[in-house]
Amino acid sequence: MEGFLGLTLPSFIGQLINFLILLGLLTFFGYKPIRRMLDERANRIKKSMEQAEATKQEYDRARVEVEKRISKARDEGQSIVGQSEQAGERIKEEARQGARKEAQAIVDRTREELERDRDKIVDELRKEFVDMAILAAEKVISETLDKEKHRQIIEKTLEESAALRRNES
Question: Taking the model in full, what pTM does it have?
Fold first, then answer.
């Protein structure tokens, strides 16, 4: 007797027993190991996610620390640049002052040399003037005077006239 959908009760019970045995075997040999393997995989994934989160947090902390260090280094760099600029300005100013002092020293030395040269030229002109005056006096008087005595008289006269001119000024 064929039943509904070509199944008979004895064949249905046999198939049901076969199904239950197969289900038991699969549960015992397949489901538990697969379930254990899936649980282990889930645990590994969970640990990996926790490690990833911990790594992300560590990365964020490290990034913040690096940004702080970069900011600090930038500030220190700007401070060093500022100090360098100040030092450069100070050195330039010192060089300018040194150049001014050196220029003033050169001017002073030149002035002293010019005064010495002027004094020397004035003395030479006086001597020449004295000599010319003696020669002129000799020619006028037509006799030779004591040259040294005559020079002293003329120099004394020139000094007195120079002193008078200074007093008038």
Answer: 0.40
